[in-house]
Specification:
Layout (H helix, E strand, L loop, with lengths): L3 H12 L6 E7 L9 H8 L4 E7 L2 E6 L2 E6 L4 E4 L11 E6 L2 E7 L5 E6 L3 H4 L14 H8 L6 H6 L9 H10 L13 H20 L40 E5 L2 E5 L14 H21 L1 H17 L9
Antiparallel strand pairs: 1-6, 2-3, 3-4, 4-8, 5-7, 6-7, 9-10
Helix pairs in contact: 1-7, 6-7, 8-9
Length: 324
């Protein structure tokens, strides 16, 4: 999913060419792209001049005179300035004069667009947390937001109500830079750990922006160019590969339906610290899978395990019986 750095990359590219252009047409090829009808989108957007490009969390905002076009790319959305190769129709098109257009492609069709009156912006984004690069996102804010949270740290970082714009890739990478295990109880971080986490988030996000985002799956900028942050990842997507810092193999667990990556050595579980409940379950699932994989790759070991299981079954008393 495009996260803050990817959406910021799109914003910067479009900010260089769209302001001053006027919307002269709106084409909706996929009605699912918006809760509004094609007619409603046209009524809200036609004949309005583009004033600026902004971003709020993972949302791109095309500011028009008196209105906003808001776009969320979700999993596979791409905003392009020229038709995509292959002839597939875009889900949504904004035609601009003179002689320009913005095309929204989206393979999995999860992306959405909204047309809003300018006055509705605050209400639309009311549930989002602060911007990581905004003045509100201080160590004190983060400490207060973490206080009392029993969810895993990774889950907290993904909660858009607490921090706007952080997703799976940058949460894993920031936790690695902060040397914090993503399965720890979020509310259990000490003062120094909170400060490390804030600094790591800003550093990781800024590096992602500097590298024009991460093109792991489908992300490209509006001119079709890929980002480079994927070449610098420390843990995300590197399961079983050696840690760039210490050489320990990177681990992956499933947490809340998402893959979570960390280095067991650089992000240890300090003695006396407890895992969040979801974290304990994720770690145990990963251990079971690892044991199965080892057994599957070693037939002799698998046979020994099966024999041991049969022995335990044979010697276990049946229900209602007592052992001698």
């Amino acid at each position: 999913m495009p996260e803050l750095p990817e959406v910021e990359t799109v914003r910067r590219r479009l900010a260089a060419c769209l302001p001053g252009l006027v919307v002269e047409g709106v084409v909706v090829n996929d009605p699912v792209v918006s809760v509004q009808t094609a007619a409603e989108l046209r009524d809200a957007l036609l004949d309005r001049r583009v004033v600026a490009l902004r971003r709020r969390g993972k949302y791109l905002i095309v500011e028009l005179e008196g209105a906003l076009l808001v776009v969320h790319l979700r999993m596979t959305g791409r905003l392009l300035l020229a038709p995509e190769a292959g002839g597939r129709a875009p889900r949504f098109v904004v035609r601009l004069r003179p002689a320009s257009e913005l095309l929204f492609y989206d393979t999995r069709r999860f992306g959405r667009v909204w047309a809003l009156p300018a006055a509705a912006e605050d209400e639309f984004f009311a549930a989002l947390g602060p911007e990581p690069f905004g003045e509100q996102f201080t160590a004190d804010y983060l400490r207060g937001a973490l206080a009392g949270r029993v969810a895993p740290l990774k889950s907290f970082l993904l909660d858009q109500r607490r921090i706007a714009g952080v997703g799976n890739i940058y949460a894993d990478e920031a936790a690695f830079r902060a040397r914090l295990n993503p399965l720890l109880v979020a509310g259990g971080l000490g003062r120094g750990e909170v400060e490390r986490l804030r600094d790591a988030l800003l550093e990781t996000l800024q590096l992602g922006i500097d590298q024009a985002g991460a093109s792991i799956d489908t992300f490209v900028d509006p001119e079709g160019a890929s980002g480079a942050f994927q070449e610098m990842l420390n843990v995300y997507g590197r399961t079983g590969q050696p840690c760039r810092a210490c050489g320990t193999l990177i681990r992956r667990v499933e947490l809340g339906g998402r893959g979570t990556h960390f280095c067991p050595c650089c992000q240890p579980l300090p003695r006396g610290r407890r895992l969040a409940s979801g974290g304990r379950e994720a770690l145990e699932r990963a251990r079971r899978l690892a044991r199965r994989a080892r057994s599957a790759s070693d037939p002799a070991r698998a046979a020994r395990s099966a024999a041991a299981a049969e022995g335990r079954t044979a010697t276990r008393p049946a229900r209602g019986e007592t052992s001698a």
